[in-house]
């Protein structure tokens, strides 16, 4: 059996963990959901409240974003059996750990976006 080359860190390889992660979390909506849920920790936030606090997100985009985060184990979903159902979300431990690098990225953006915007004009 031949050893497979180590593809970690090779963004050109479709199996690269970094590339696969960025495909999943590399949207502004994911970053906003994680930030809001991290701020609420350990409390849950209902769908309607998330939508209200995320200007510009459509109901469909928020639904898709949350479904993907739940499927990836980053967010937990709880449904109250009421009419209509009340749906609550919170970060899992894995999702909460994602807030650290996303917060660092937000800090970097705040410090550098004016410079980047100045170059693109």
Write the layout of secondary structure elements.
Elements (H helix, E strand, L loop, with lengths): L16 H9 L2 H13 L4 E2 H6 L6 H13 L3 E6 L5 E6 L1 H27 L2
Antiparallel strand pairs: 1-3, 2-3
Describe the structure concisely for a colleague.
With 121 residues, this protein is mostly helical. The protein has helices at residues 17-25, 28-40, 47-52, 59-71, 93-119, and strands spanning 45-46, 75-80, 86-91. Strands 1-3-2 form a three-stranded antiparallel sheet.
Strand content: 5-15%
Shape designation: globular
Instruction: Decide which structural class fits the backbone.
Output: mainly alpha
**Averaged pLDDT:** 91
Outline the structure in words.
With 121 residues, the protein is mainly alpha-helical. It has helices spanning 17-25, 28-40, 47-52, 59-71, 93-119; strands at residues 45-46, 75-80, 86-91. A three-stranded antiparallel β-sheet has the order 1-3-2. A hairpin with a 5-residue loop joins strand 2 (75-80) and strand 3. Helix 2 crosses helix 5 (93-119). It starts with 16 loop residues before the first helix and ends with a helix. The model has no long low-confidence stretch (mean pLDDT 91).
Key phrases:
5 helices; globular; 121 residues; three-stranded antiparallel β-sheet; mainly alpha; single chain
């Amino acid at each position: 059996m031949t050893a497979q080359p180590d593809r970690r860190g090779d963004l050109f390889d479709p199996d690269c963990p970094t590339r696969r992660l960025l495909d999943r979390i590399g949207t502004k909506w994911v970053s906003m959901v994680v930030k809001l849920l991290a701020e609420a920790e350990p409390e849950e936030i209902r769908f309607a409240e998330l939508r209200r606090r995320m200007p510009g997100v459509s109901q469909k985009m928020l639904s898709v974003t949350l479904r993907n985060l739940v499927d990836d184990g980053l967010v937990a979903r709880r449904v109250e059996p009421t009419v209509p159902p009340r749906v609550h979300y919170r970060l899992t431990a894995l999702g909460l750990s994602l807030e650290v690098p996303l917060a660092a990225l937000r800090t970097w953006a705040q410090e550098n976006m004016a410079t980047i915007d100045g170059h693109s004009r």
